[in-house]
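Researcher: Structure prediction, please.
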Amino acid sequence: AKLEAEAAEEADRAKREAELKKLECRQKRLAREKRRDDDRSESRLRSPICCIMGHVDTGKTKLLDKIRQTNVQDGEAGGITQQIGATFFDDSTLKEKIRPVAQHLATLKDQSSSYVDSILGPDPDDPRLTLPGLLVIDTPGHESFSNLRSRGSSLCDMAILVVDLMHGLEPQTLESISMLKRKRTPFVVALNKVDRCYDWSPTEGASIREALSKQAQNTLDEFEQKKVNAFTELNEQSLNVALYWDNEDPGSTVSVVPTSAITGEGVPDLLRVVLSLTQQRLAAKLMFGYNLQCTVLEVKVVEGLGATLDVILVNGCLHAGDTMVLCTQDGPIVTTARALLTPPPSRETRVKSELIKHESLEGAIGLKITGDPELTKVVPGTGILVMHQDDDVEDLKEECMKDIANLSDTLATEAKGVTVQASTLGALEALLEFLRNPGKDRQGKERPPIPVSGATVGPIHKKDVIKAAIMAQKGSEEYSCILGFDVPVDPEAQAYADKNSVKIFTADIIYHLEGHFTRHLDEIMERKRNEARDVAVFPSLFKISKNHVFNMKDPIILGGEVVDGILKVGTPLCIPHLGFLDVGVVQSIECNHKDVQTARKGQECAIKIVNHGNPNMTYGRQFDHNHQLFSKVNRASIDALKKYFKDDMQDADWRLVIKLKKVFSVI
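Model: Predicted structure follows.
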């Protein structure tokens, strides 16, 4: 026993020491991070990260292709961005790209320089650009906004919102706008597809003002009309917008640049607006520092390389051979960065071309990290930590899992609800935020929030379907379904789902998922309403008119007035004052010589009553016009009304239900 006590004491002491060491290391680490933050200066900026957002088919990738002079678009499924791509442009490429604007300005005699022109010096061949380059992410909107390591900053410093001049704002554009507002990200609007204006005469790669000056009047009129429509829609989203050369106040007004991704017109202007905006307004945010900010975008297994991570290194420095602490579904892992790979300059990280190896890299840049097979478990959207000499591994593991811990607060789920799965953390957050917050659907109808009972990142497997199937056993079959955002479904899971009537809905646009689910709810509701029709009894009082008795015996046919409530075909009628005498069930109702299903308060009609239990029921013998006929309600019928027929009932009808409850002593 003594030995055991000693061993326990020893273990205790070791634990305390480990805790102390961890705290000490944490303080050192935080001090180091603060020191590095203080060392930053505006004389050295990192490349800003810009992402291109907008609705499907507005020309996001085409626009990037134009800047890059390549063609990723045609290598994509259906020409739509499937994975995240990141492209780095160095400063010399950028200067080359914005030269047409400088040349156009030089041809204008009055040198009224707007704020945007400040990085273009008086000499068109020498723009004053202090940024080392620009990193552009072409992304399925949400991922780029996944949280960056509890600092809550977004991955993007700046965004380009692509709006189709011909179609105006579309659902995903609205989704992007609300996301940009929520994250307070500065952005510019690219009003794309100007070359679709009638009779447009293109000037390859020209400055947009130069291009517009060469158009015929009718073309300019059409452009003006479409532009006004787009501006109005943007104003409706409470955004102030102006063409970039008319924008006097870039602090509160969004600059709009008309572009054409096909002819390249306006692309130099777009780049220039992005660069001057970031250089002037975001300099403090763009100071280069050695604190690592690095986010995992995608996890892939690549032939010849094994498990790889596609990451965006925002700030700081990574070396080949660094010890990394990463976040997985099963807890933190510690592993080595075997190699750091980047595509050649101005190519995208996802198009297969020869990759270049590096000893070390500085932000901001998109790269691939290769390493051990366990990298495949890393959760996309989480941050990467690198261990230094005096760091404690346990401290870093805790720090690393904060991402997931913070997320599990967002994921905190209800007891009853749908199961949700998405391809990355960012996508999952976006989806949850959308489902949880009520809003308006496409038709402008209010839609209630959708409860979520479970949420995970990754493909849909059989175990997920088994979890979803439990909802049906709990009596909530409407929630016995999985909403998958941009994830594959395992064939075994699909088979199991079909067998156990679990619905799996997948889509790559959040709106579509919500649409699938709403339709699924409507179908179930309709079916349940049909089943409940036999149980539900609508409240009504019927007064017999003694001059309108057409048949006294079964079937009894009487004329009269609905004094209160709603009388429907199938309503059982009784007379409480005569010992709850069952008169029978309404078989049909006739108003103005027409058969109807329903008669409301104040309507006069004739009703046919059938009594299968007592065919001898006769008007004048058991009851007459002095007695009002009541709907025969009970607990089950009232519950069915509340659950399935709320929309058919008015306030006065509910008041009658309360009266009838007293009459029939329903608890």
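Model: The two ends are 64 Å apart (CA to CA).
Researcher: Thanks, that helps.
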